[in-house]
Design a protein that fits this description.
- The chain is mostly helical.
- It has one domain.
- It is built from 14 helices and two strands.
């Protein structure tokens, strides 16, 4: 397939096929002629932007506001005890939220097709950042890598900038790059050697580097994103089954090679076997969930202390302080975003938009499922944040950027 054909496939409206006559050249379709015009004249890339999806916008703003409120509620007293500053944790969260909202608004107005230009540099940048946190850095650069709980996960870029989690960059990079790659590949993804094998070659380095940190939670998110895009792109069922079996085998190998993953699984099965050590976080999280009752204990009135309550177990804090009612509200807001995201993917104008929408939905759903799953003990504790709610500048910024991409697909969903 020539380069021009690949671009034609990427921007061709969904549901409209080009018909080629056997034995002779085909007459260019309207989509093909439009793409030729785009390649010849960059100004032809412009198309009319429509109104954003206000339902998603309201839900995202509500979740962001709830996140700031709950992080402040959970951290105010401990922060004051440490530094006499109740805003020690929530202030960076507010800053990250404002930066994320600005990025979301900008991405809502820039045609998502321009992102394919940045897809390769973004993927390379993500790989470089994932490598930096794993290799020894010389002299003054040594302090760039920040480790926590035995994992090298953050890059410290200076006193006035938030620490960056390279895995957050990797998630967005994979969504954008794989969407572009799959859109240009078209039906070629159904080929094993020309579709599935190159797809695996692209994905595997990201997974290996994230597992090496180790960050098994983020690796699980990446796997879910990858399989979602692979399936929606039209991969053969047999190849998909082979990929699932390979993923299961790789997961089993990771568990067998280290005590850390196996310990997390054992804790999931029976956290009360060691409630004061390995099972402490899980047990306390369950106690907090049950302590809230119907309407909760009230903001700032935590009765149960849960380790990592501002990030990994923020949902337990919500359940304790706002009760069953507050938990249902949060789950409903996530459900609204997910439902609208699936609808946007179905309405996408072209393959690129469809792939990007699917990637963002997969990213959000996997985070919500894994995080709330470990709060209610159906998933092992893996350190996956709850989008827009958990403490962490990289997570909040990445989530809002993803929402901006999703809104953009909706904004430019009509014909150009």
């Amino acid at each position: 397939m020539s380069g021009r054909d690949r671009w034609d496939d990427e921007d061709q409206p969904l549901g409209r096929e080009r018909v080629r006559r056997s034995g002779g050249p085909s007459r260019p379709s309207e989509a093909s002629r439009s793409q030729t015009s785009i390649l010849a004249n960059p100004n032809a890339m412009k198309r009319e932007a429509h109104e954003p999806d206000y339902i998603i916008l309201v839900a995202v703003l509500a979740l962001s506001a709830i996140g700031i409120l709950m992080v402040y509620s959970a951290s105010a007293i401990p922060s004051y005890a440490r530094s006499q500053n109740t805003f020690q944790l929530v202030a960076p969260q507010v800053l990250a939220g404002l930066l994320g909202l600005a990025a979301m608004v900008i991405l809502m107005r820039i045609d998502y097709r321009y992102l394919r230009v940045a897809s390769v540099p973004l993927a390379v940048l993500a790989l470089v950042m994932l490598l930096i946190v794993l290799v020894p850095l010389p002299g003054p650069l040594k302090g760039m890598v920040v480790s926590a709980n035995g994992s090298a996960r953050w890059l410290h870029l200076g006193p006035f900038l938030p620490d960056i989690h390279p895995a957050e960059v990797a998630k967005l990079a994979l969504v954008v790059y794989l969407s572009h790659w799959l859109a240009t590949r078209g039906n070629g993804i159904r080929s094993f050697w020309n579709g599935s094998v190159p797809f695996a070659i692209i994905v595997i380095p990201f997974l290996i580097l994230v597992v090496r940190e180790p960050d098994l939670g983020t690796a699980s998110v990446l796997v879910f994103i990858v399989f979602s895009l692979y399936f929606v792109a039209g991969a053969r069922l047999f190849h998909l089954v082979l990929a699932v079996l390979a993923g299961i085998g790789g997961g089993a190998l990771v568990v067998a090679m280290g005590s850390y993953p196996l310990q997390r699984i054992q804790t999931l099965i029976d956290p009360w076997a060691d409630p004061q050590n390995t099972g402490y976080q899980t047990v306390k999280g369950l106690e907090a969930l049950s302590a809230g009752g119907l309407f909760g204990t009230g903001l700032g009135n935590d009765r149960i202390f849960v380790p990592q309550d501002v990030n990994d177990f923020i949902f337990s804090v919500i359940a304790e302080e706002s009760g069953f009612v507050g938990s249902v509200i949060v789950l409903t807001l996530y459900g609204v975003v997910l439902f609208c995201g699936i609808r946007i993917a179905g309405q996408a104008r072209d393959r690129l938009g469809k792939m990007m929408a699917v990637g963002v939905v997969a990213l959000l759903f996997s985070h919500v499922f894994i995080n709330i799953g470990m709060n209610i003990r159906i998933m092992p504790v893996t350190g996956v944040p709850l989008p827009l709610l958990s403490y962490g500048g990289s997570s909040v910024l990445g989530s809002l950027i993803a929402m901006g991409i999703l809104q953009n697909v909706y904004t430019y969903r009509k014909a150009y």
